[in-house]
Specification:
With 404 residues, the protein is of the alpha+beta class. It has eleven helices and 15 strands. β13 and β14 form a beta hairpin. The C terminus is likely disordered. Bound molecules: zinc ion. Zinc ion binds next to loops.
């Protein structure tokens, strides 16, 4: 699945129409969640039931009916994703919050599938043909959407970002396998000092732009509160802040993508810690160095490129990986500030490198098993919709849009 993104250029009334479609999507999604919440226990509300519910909503509300029927389905599918995630978390007995579906207030996108739009055959333009009145808009970008057969375009998504409107096309290209340059095996450990350390003894530096941007963003954020509420200046300050944020999330994405690509290109087996990133960020000491967003992005791109290079990505339970000697298995206790691993067996390594080797060893020991098992090792697979959803969430990142 390939995602092409264009900036949308249209008139004010067209942007208003996009906003309206986005609002309708949110309405349907939230209605579907409510429908699920209110349903009696014995009525099993599943994806299909929610789909049928979207048809019912269309009959009831004119503004829902105006949105393309498949776009309405996409909206209930979003509700289903949230519900299903909750079910999965309950099933897996995830500790802490299970992510009970919540009502969304900040939706920023509407998703069409294979109908409700048509491409201009010559120019880079798209027309939305449902009754929301978006009409024909220009697409600004360097790719030629026309080169892909329309049949391969599975989804068209309109997004509102801090600096305007965007249109994404999800194209179903057969996964093109690229050939790896090497068949290495690598373990990755997230540390305090580095973005990650690997089992070969390399350390990947934390991207400097994040530190720099952090300052700029904080400054921009403070400016908002200095301006009077409801005033134009405040609105502008808010926009400046949002734009800065958007810029960083793009840089972050580029960084994660590039790293993940290189790792998968050179390795047949990639092992990483299955960290509860949420839990980690609560720890303030770690939060500064490890940017949770960067790391989870990196993981997603690892999975993406693993599919592309036909590499295997394995998530490993990180328990004891930093304490255990990677050579002899003895537990060598160390505090967070101890930066090296010294074992009686003579093994001396940088702390994170030792952990990375342990991570790789754990993965190798279990790689024979397919799928996940109770000991916390999972082999991530990526196909179809999941991948699409992942890429979309990656692309969507913006300050007041939390992807769940
Ligand atoms: Zn040892």
């Amino acid at each position: 699945m390939l995602v092409l993104e264009y900036k949308v250029k249209g008139k004010k009334h067209q942007y208003d129409a996009i906003n309206e479609a986005i609002r309708t999507t949110q309405f349907i999604r939230n209605k579907a969640i409510r429908y699920w919440m209110d349903a009696p226990k014995e009525a099993k509300v599943n994806k299909i039931a929610l789909n049928n519910y979207s048809t019912a909503l269309r009959k009831k509300f004119k503004f829902v009916e105006e949105l393309n029927s498949m776009a309405c389905q996409s909206a209930t599918e979003r509700a289903w994703l949230a519900i299903d995630r909750f079910y999965q978390n309950c099933k897996k007995k995830v500790s802490g919050k299970k992510g009970y579906p919540r009502f969304q207030k900040d939706n920023r996108s509407v998703e069409y599938k294979t109908s409700g739009w048509s491409l201009n055959q010559v120019k880079r333009r798209i027309t939305f043909t449902d009754k929301k009145g978006i009409g024909e808009v220009k697409l600004l970008g360097k790719w030629d959407i026309q080169t892909y057969p329309v049949k391969q375009i599975k989804r068209v998504r309109l997004l509102k970002k801090a600096d305007g409107y965007y249109c994404q096309f999800c194209i179903d290209t057969d996964v093109k396998f690229e050939s790896r340059i090497d068949d290495g095996e690598i373990g990755l450990d997230v540390g305090l000092e580095f973005f990650y350390s690997d089992s070969n003894g390399n350390h990947e530096e934390n991207p400097r732009f994040l530190r720099k941007a952090e300052k700029a963003i904080k400054h921009a954020q403070r400016q908002i509160y200095k301006k009077e509420k409801g005033k134009n200046q405040r609105r502008k300050a808010r926009q400046r802040y949002a734009r800065k944020h958007l810029k960083v999330s793009r840089q972050r994405k580029e960084h994660a993508l590039e790293l993940a690509r290189n790792v998968c290109k050179a390795n047949a087996l990639v092992a990483y810690e299955d960290l509860n990133v949420k839990g980690m960020v609560k720890n303030h000491c770690l939060a500064k160095s490890i940017n949770d967003a960067s790391w989870s992005l990196f993981r997603r791109w690892l999975e993406y490129f693993a599919a592309k290079f036909n590499s295997q990505v394995v998530a490993v339970n990180p328990r004891m990986t930093s304490q255990k000697c990677s050579d002899c298995g003895t537990i060598v206790k160390k505090s967070l500030s101890t930066r090296s691993h010294k074992c009686e067996c003579g093994c001396e390594l940088q702390r994170d490198v030792n952990a990375a080797i342990n991570i790789l060893n754990l993965a190798k020991a279990r790689v024979g098993h397919t799928r996940s098992n109770s000991s916390g090792v999972g082999i991530t697979t990526l196909v179809g919709v999941n991948l699409l959803e992942q890429i979309l969430t990656v692309n969507e990142e913006s300050p007041d849009f939390t992807t769940k």
